[in-house]
Design goal:
- The chain is mainly beta and about 400 residues long.
- Helices cover about 10% and strands about 45% of the residues.
- The protein has 3 helices and 36 strands.
- β30 and β31 form a beta hairpin.
Length: about 400
Amino acid sequence: MKLKTYFTALAVICLALEASADGNTINVKTAAEFVNALGPDRTIVIVTNQPLNITEAIDRRVSEGTLPEAETYFNLETPPAKTARVTYASNTDGNALQVRGCNNLTIRSARGTATLLATPRYVNVMEFIDCKDLKIENIVMGHTQDGYCDKGVLELDRCNHVTINDCDLYGCGTEGFVIDCCNDVTVNRTTVHDCTYHTMHIFRSNQVRFNDCIFRDNREYDQLCVSNCNDIVFTGCLFDNLQGPLFALDDYVNFYSCSFRRCMMQPIDSEFGPQGYAILAYCSQLNEETSAIISVKKPTLRPGLWTDGKRQYRVTRSDAYRYVFTPLDEPENAFALNCISVKANDYITAPEFPCENRSRLVADAGRNGGTDYVRILDDGGVLQQSFRYVGR
């Protein structure tokens, strides 16, 4: 009886150490703990600075028979277990970790950055499938070995509402990102570097944003590959030493206030202009001696109620640069305003703004008599519409 009581108490202590006060945060310090902690409705905090080799944890569970196999890279018809949240897929030189159907999952580092590694070069470091409300913060991901490879670093497949902040993705993976059949993906202040072939592939996805990211030293072939997508935007990003044709775009992609250095592209000869399907606005090409990214001034529009004198709008911020104006009486007629400030009070608007010749619009934002305002002007300075802040 005493022995049973001892083990019961020990189990309670272990659970208390694992979970935080809110019951939904799990602290991990080994690769095995990380893999075992994966699941929906939780925050996983990596509390060690030592790299975690998730391949070792996967292989151990595969050998024990406690990790189900899903689709493999050779046979995509193999169904996963119906209730499996974590599975693996095998390829030529090892196994890949797959996270499935885990909604409301956050993975972050407790301090600084944490590192997740994969040993096989023919698997992605991590794959997220059918996940919603996923957040990854302050994580380094890469492969332990360099050389020829077949898979990348991070793959998002059929995921919605994903936020990636302050991460570092590196080779030898073929590329940093594969984003397929996803909606509403935002990547902030993240670096993709030293990948073997490409920088990223984006397929069949909508509303994908890269803000203040750095893409550098990726080798060979087409670098930015986009196909069957809508609303793909790069803002304030640096593209440096990408060794292959930069744009492989089958759809229009917007680049706002981005910098290009040592990339294969046509010279930028105007503040606003297309390069095929790449629409460049206020972008710059840097010389060989310059490596600093353009400083982008963030907008300061207040969320809340605004009016144009005829109707009221609820203004919300959807990311670091974009504001959505929703008419209270006709919410289906909402439009977005991209505020990318290259110099004081000099903004460009998103294509959603309901006005002819909208690609040449600018917006003047400021304060007058203590009231915030936004004026939409055409490139000749003629006022198209104005809004003023009403309150919360």
